[in-house]
Amino acid sequence: MSMQHFGELLDELSFQPARNEKLRLIVESLRATPDPDRGYAMAALTGSLHLPNAKPGALRALGAAQSDEILFALSYDYVGDLAETLALIWRAAPAPEAEAPALADVVLALEAASAKDVPALLAGWLDRLDATGRWALLKLVTGALRV
Predict the structure, then answer these.
(1) Would the CA dihedral through 77, 4, 125, 99 be positive or negative?
(2) Of the residues 6, 35, 123, 127, which has the fewest C-beta atoms closer than 10 A?
């Protein structure tokens, strides 16, 4: 499952009010997803995936570097969600030939990375994703899926 597909699933779940329909979406997605991506998606959806070296401070620093520190702070204050703010303010548009990273590749890289290496990893992936994929990546990192 690519981060882009994971983002699309999260997007569908966010806009779906019916519990049974959410469950149907999750089941369909997990059935179509091979391991280990299926396991990581389930861990993320249930809140049991922890990426301790990916800190919110690193995300705020990425956002401030993408625009202006004050503009990012004001945008974050207005939107109220770090992942959503950074996903929307990120300036890079993915190149048509850029392949979205796989969910398992993202998780494994973040688990192995030191705290100082995380921002560069995230920036590279954010450059390869559209706004929905960026949002999913950042929600994965912050653990605040709320779907």
Answers:
(1) negative
(2) 35
